[in-house]
Structure formats: structure tokens, C-alpha cells
Amino acid sequence: MALTKILVLVLAGGAGGRLELLTEQRAKPAVPFAGVYRLIDFPLSNCQHSGIADVRVAVQFHPTSLADHLANGRPWDLDRTTGGLMTLPPFRGTDRGGWATGTADVLWRQADLVREAAPDALVVVSADAVYELDYREVVEEHLASSAEVTMVTTEVAADDAARYGIVQVDGDRVTDYAYKPDHPATTTATNEVFVFTPGATLDRLEALAADAGEDGVGDLGDGLLPAQTADGLARAHRLAGYWRDVGTVAAYWQAHMDFVAPEPPIDLDDPAWPLHTRGGRHSAARLLPGAAVESSLVSGGTRVAGAVRGSVLSPGVVVEEGATVTDSVLLPGVRVRSGARVHRAVLDDGVDVGRGAEVGGDGDVALVGLAARLADGSRVAAGGRYPEQD
User: Fold this and answer.
1) Which of 32, 162, 228, 289 has the CA that lies 20 to 30 A from 247?
2) What's the pLDDT at 333?
3) Which positions fall inside the Glucose-1-phosphate adenylyltransferase/Bifunctional protein GlmU-like C-terminal hexapeptide domain (predicted)?
């Protein structure tokens, strides 16, 4: 019996505007997570553990920030002579060339590549969520059904549901789909993992594109998924484990707080399902005399002489004597100088917090952008942004 041929398309090209300063100079999937990882490590590691070796990564914004990290797919065993990992940048030369205007538009522009690969199933995933999932298991369930699409679903908070595609489900059949509705009917959301029957889906997409004209087909939730649902060809696969979209600063911060808890929601070092990433070259962390570290993730290459609690320190972070960091996320190369205080904040690569400066406070998460220098004694209030955004 021939093995099921699966093609995975990772959507890594969105502008990531909701992450504000964190995506001004990097692609959203390249944003660091939990110290030593990047967001794109989650779908690529899922592919490896699912035994899927044909992966295409659609890039568009700040592609160089991903290129170095992807390393031809080697960390995920995707550096192969046939198949493996391939990046798909915007292109010209055919009637499908140009900038994609949405997730469905990406699929339409790459339709010829998908048809040429002739997979039994096409898995389309985003790269801005934290979760573990065996894609092959979902594919096998999909192929055993008569569905044209299987939507992986999860439960979200009621006050956050309007950010997602919301479904109503009867058994495993999706009876209604609404994309980012003003008044969500349920809290069951699609988590941006979809398994499609390739031929039927691409044919449907062609018809939608012909009707849309120059406006394009937009996102998957604009036309494709509603049409498949209306025809009774959509089914749901419930993800029972942890899933968190980290597409906003608040969600990104909260996900890190989840992982500094005594029992994190996912064991990133689980021998049965480790999260793989491009290896770095950092020495062991150094906890100097006077250091006090509690309930935190401390990466290699860090030096801590101050107090750190409930925080994530990425490689190369320095917390000087007398400095305090609490409930915060510090990305690579951040330096917090003597007497400075950082609380409920996200600090981007290379930020230098001057002596006696204060960042954050009780309230919304504060955000300091790439390589910013905060003067001695300066202040970024709770919920503040530095540099300030228009």
C-alpha cells in the first residue's frame, strides 16, 4: 500500500502588525519564543514528528530574518535532495505573480506548485501559534471522511473570540463558519491548521478567483472556508491540548508567563516530541554572586547578578547587580543596568535599560523596540511603547 503523500504549506508571510515593534524588522514567524526558539519552530517540529518531509514556507515580509534560521531545513530533518523544505517568495513572470493579499491568495498563487506535487492531502498552517499536533493523524482522519476540508479547532476566551474564525459543530461536522464575527455564536475557533483535499479545493479556489476579479480571494476565511462549510464538506478535529495564538503583544507576553509556571503547558524538552530549532553558540548561563532567580527561563550566554522572577531571559541577556526583572520577556542581548526595574514588559533584541530606569508596571504590557537605549533614570510606563508609535 502506497504511503500517503502529504504537502505542508506554512504561511509565514503576514506583516504581523499586531505585534507592533517586534515585527518592524523581522517576520512574525522569526520572533523569538521561550528564550532560544522562534515561532516557526512549532509547525516545523510538528512536521518532523508527524513524519512529513515535504514542506513549503511562503514568505513575504522581512524574508531575510527567516532565511538564516531555516538553515535549509536541517534542524527539522528537511534538508533533502528530493522534497524537504522550500521557501516560496513573491514572484513575477506568470499571471499569478505579485504580492499576496491574504492567506487564500497565497494558496491561489501557489496552486500550480501544489498540483505539480500531486499530494493526497494539503496541510495549510500558520506560524504564529504555540502548540503540538500530529498533522498526519489529522490527515488520516480527513482522508477517511468525505470532507473537502478538516479544520482543527480549539476553545478560546469569549472576549477574544472575535479575532478568529468561529465554527458551530454537530459531532465532527462543521455546520457554520464565521470569519472574525462581531458577535461570535460560540467560543470554538479554528486554530489556523487546515487539511484540504487538494484538487477539489484548488478547483473551488479558481472559481472564487474568477468571481473576485482584481480584488483577489483574500483570506481563507473570506470565501473558501464558508463555501466548503455551506456545501456540507467541512469537518472539525478538536485539539485537546494547549494552543495559544501569539499574534498580539499581550498574547505573546501571556504565552511566556504560561511557560515560566511551575508546570508549563508543553514540555519543550519532551524526548518523545522535542521542539527543534537552529542551534546557537552560547556558553552556559552565569549566575553571579548576589543573583536571585525564581520561576524563570534562563538561556545560555546570560549573566545575572540582580533579581529575576517569573521571566524569560534569552541568550546574551545581562542583568546587573541591583537590577530587578519581574514577569517580563527579554529577547537576545538585552542589558538591564544597575538599579533599573523591568516589570510586565517585553524588551526586543539589544535593548539597553539605563541605570535606575523603570520599564512597565502594574497594567498593560510595556514594549521596548529593537536596540533602543533608555537613558539613566528614564521611564516607560505600564502599557507604554518606546519608541512611541504613531
Assistant:
1) 228
2) 96
3) 292-362
Cα 88 to Cα 99: distance, rounded to the nearest angstrom: 12
User: Is there a contact between 360 and 368 (Cβ–Cβ < 8 Å)?
Assistant: no
Binned at pLDDT 50, 70 and 90, residue 14 comes out as: confident
Model pLDDT for residues 130-185, shown as the tens digit of each residue: 999 999 999 999 999 999 999 999 999 999 999 999 999 999 999 999 999 999 99
Q: Which residues of 237-275 are buried (b: 16+ CB within 10 A; e: fewer)?
A: bebeeebbbbbbbebbbebbbebbeeeeebebeeeeeeb
Distances (CA, A) of 206 to 74, 104, 111, 150: 35, 11, 9, 20
Contact between 133 and 168 (Cβ < 8 Å): no
Mean pLDDT of 186-191: 97
Q: Left if phi > 0, otherwise alpha if psi is -120 to 50, otherwise beta: which for 389?
A: beta
CB 303 within 8 A of CB 284: no
Distance separating alpha carbons of residues 282 and 167, to the nearest angstrom: 45
Check residue 390 and give its pLDDT.
61
Place of cell 504560561: 258
Question: Considering only 2-16, 182-196, 311-325, which range has the smallest mean pLDDT?
Answer: 2-16
Let me know: does 195 contact 150? Beta carbons within 8 Å. yes
Averaged pLDDT of the chain? 94
Q: In the chain, list all ranges with CATH 2.160.10.10.
A: 286-386
- For 286-386, give the CATH class: mainly beta
pTM for the complete prediction?
A: 0.94
Closest CA to 315 of 293, 294, 331, 335: 331
| Mean pLDDT, rounded, for 82-88 | 91
Confidence class of residue 15 from pLDDT cuts 50, 70 and 90?
confident
Domain with CATH 3.90.550.10 in the chain: 6-259
Helices (H), 110-223: 111-117, 135-143, 198-212
Q: What are phi and psi of 336, to 5 degrees?
A: -110, 110
Q: What are phi and psi of 155, to 5 degrees?
A: -95, 140
